[in-house]
Amino acid sequence: MNLLDKTLDSLTQHFQLHYKKGKYHARALIREIIKNGNRNPETIPELVASPEFLRQLSSSGELDSFLPLPDIVEICTENLDNEICAENNQINNSHQDRTIKFVSRLQDGQHIESVIIPMKQYNTLCVSTQVGCRMGCLFCATGASGFQRDLTTSEITSQLFNARFILKKSIKNIVFMGMGEPLDNLDHLIQSIAVLNEPHGFDIAHRHMTISTCGLVPRIYELAASLIKPCLTRPNLAVSINSADQEIRSSLMPINRKYPLAQLRKALLEWPVTDRQLILIEYILFKNLNDSQEDARKLADYLAGLKVRVNLIGYNYANNRNRSISLQPVEDSDIHKFASYLEKYGIFVVKRWGKGANFKAGCGQLSAKKE
Ligand code: SF4
C-alpha cells in the first residue's frame, strides 16, 4: 500500500476493507506523512492510541511500503557563473533563489528529472510524467532520448514529496512540463492530480496546477471530461504550439501530422475554461524559423476567438542529434520584437526568460539519459 497514490477517500476505503478502520485513521496518516512529512508512522498519535491496528499494519508489511520514495541521486543548481552539482542531497542556503534540477532514480533504475523554479512569492515544481517521451519534438532532449515507460501515480507525486521534505523547498505550483507528454499517461496524470489536490495531504489547488501538452487532441477531450465532474475549479491547460504554419509545425512536432492545427484549435475552443482562466499557449522562438512578423500574424489569426495567453520562450539548445533542420537560438531582442508584433494584434503575451538553461534544466532540456 502506497500513500503517494492515495486520496483520503481511497485510503479510507482501503482501511475499511482490510482493517475495519476508517476515515479517522486515514486522515491522520495522510496529514502526518503527506502534509507534514513525518516519515515515522509509529509516532502518529492516532496510531499510537490504536496499538492493535498499528501491529496489524506492521505485520502485513504495509508500514514498510507506505512511502516508496525514489532516491535523489543528483542535484544541480546554478550560481552566477556556472553550475554546482551536489551528490549529498544538500542545497546551500545561498542557493535559495536559484533554479534547482534534481535527478531521481526509480526502483527499476530509470532516472527522471524535476526542476524547482523560484517565482516571486513561491516555488514552482516542474514534474515528469514519463521516462523519456514518444512524441519526438525536434527541439527537445527528452524526445531525443526516446520512450522508456510511463511513470506510476506515486512516481509522479513523489517528486513533490522529495522537493518539499528532502530538499525542503516550499512549493505552491505544479507544472506537468517535465519529461514526457502528460496526456500520453492520462490515467496516472488524473490520479496524480487528485492526490496532489487532496486537502488533507499535498493540498495543491487546481488553479496552481498546469498540464502541458504537445497537442494530443483526443486526450484533451478526455481530460476535460474527466475533470469537469469532480472539480469545481480546474487545472490550467498549456499547449505547445510553436508555429501556426502547418508545415513548420509538422517539421518541429511530428504530432501535428496526426492531429493538425485545425483539429487542435477545435479542441481548444471546447476546453472548459473558467471565468478567471486562460489557455496558455507555449511558443518557443527559433531564429529565422518562426520569429517573423508574418509568423506572429499567423499565430494571432490562429488564436482569434480563444481565451489565451502566449508564453514566449527562447529556444534552449538541447544538443539533439539527427536533426533534419537546424534550430538556432534567438537573441533577447528577437523575443521582444516578436512579443511586440503579437501585442499589436491584440494578443496577451508573457516573455519567459529561460531559467536553468545553462545547466540543462530549461524547457526542452530534460533527458532520461544520465550523462
Ligand atoms: S516537448 Fe514534450 S511532448 Fe515534445 S518530445 Fe519533449 S517532452 Fe515530449
Name the features.
two-stranded antiparallel sheet; TIM Barrel; 34% helix; eleven-stranded mixed beta sheet; Methyltransferase_A; 13 strands; 2 domains; transferase; metal-binding; binds iron/sulfur cluster; alpha/beta; 371 residues
Explain what this protein looks like in three dimensions.
Keywords: 4Fe-4S, Cytoplasm, Disulfide bond, Iron, Iron-sulfur, Metal-binding, Methyltransferase, S-adenosyl-L-methionine, Transferase. It is found in: Cytoplasm. Belongs to the radical SAM superfamily. RlmN family. Pfam families: Radical_SAM (PF04055). Its main location: cytoplasm. The structure is a single chain. With 371 residues, this protein is an alpha/beta fold. It has 2 domains: 3-65, no CATH class; 71-359, Aldolase class I (TIM Barrel, Alpha-Beta Barrel), CATH 3.20.20.70. The protein has helices at 8-19, 23-35, 45-48, 51-59, 141-144, 153-166, 186-197, 217-228, 246-252, 255-258, 261-270, 293-303, 332-344; strands at residues 71-78, 83-86, 100-105, 111-118, 123-126, 130-132, 147-150, 171-176, 209-213, 236-240, 279-285, 308-314, 349-352. The strands form 2 sheets. Strands 2-1-3-4-5-8-9-10-11-12-13 form an 11-stranded mixed sheet, with helices on one face. A hairpin with a 4-residue loop joins strand 4 (111-118) and strand 5. Helix 8 packs parallel to helix 11 and helix 12 crosses helix 13 (332-344). The chain starts with 7 loop residues before the first helix and ends in a 19-residue tail after the last strand. It binds iron/sulfur cluster. Iron/sulfur cluster (SF4) is lined by residues 133, 135-137, 140, 142-143, 179-181, 214, 364.
